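INTERNAL AUDIT FORM
Audit reference: QA-55
Scope: verify that the stored structure record matches its stored sequence.
Auditor: D.O.
Record contents follow.
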Amino acid sequence: MEQNQGILMDSGTNELEIVEFTIGASKFGINVIKVREIINPLPITPVPRSHANVEGIIELRGEVLPVINVATAIGFPPSNEPQYDKYIVTEFNKTKMVFHVHNVSQIHRISWTQIEKPNEMYQGLETQITGIVKHNGEMILLLDFEKMVVEINEETAISRKKLNNIDQREVSKKPIFIAEDSPLLRTLIKDTLSDAGYVNTVFFENGKDLFDEVKANLADGKKLTDFVKLVITDIEMPQMDGHHLTKLMKEDKEISNLPIIIFSSLITETLKHKGEQVGATAQVSKPEIGELVQLIDQYIL
């Protein structure tokens, strides 16, 4: 597989490519943008007292990388045919790691509108799934890889500890709209921004809901800056991703001056150009919440 094929896609099209893989008989997916390469398993060195989901470490072209067993992480049984197992080498949150899966089949190019949000009927796995894709009469589940990593290493999570040099501050009630599909991250972002003094935050599960809310307020005759001063958006979200949201808002004369900060695990030097192409005001990699707060200070105060 060519490295980071997703980079070749135009920015703001509301499309993505997913790598389909299996755990047991179930089909799962990961955004191609996160994938550096797919390899056959390599010899693993176990690490004493490591997390139960971590098999150990491997050496790949001079780099030492942790290997996470996806089946263990989601409570599935081990592989019945280990000879077909694969390692998905990834990079997100400025971190490289390897995910051990049972097989890799193909790549699909789809629209974010094809991705449905899991509902309360899904128990157990519900907190591990970010979306469901219906494809050729089957379902592909998109796993929350960021959550898997946070469960192993809390240092990768958003937390107040990352609010460097931020002391007691005045409370700001200036409204901020935030598009983030992960319930866990919505809570972490809300609590951390509140600690930083920003208490008027309104959250949306995807870019479409946020965009529709802005347009509805304007249609009601409200002045833009009376109900929102700044937008923060993730990239990966069902229905409408952050790049497409940014593109729509920057092309709309009523909204184009509104500052938009993209806050995503996919902000890397290789991928930053995608946010620049759609007109993002700034881009910050998760979990750098301290840098995010500094940018909010810059654009909202």
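Auditor finding: record pair retrieved intact. The two ends are 46 Å apart (CA to CA).
Action required: none
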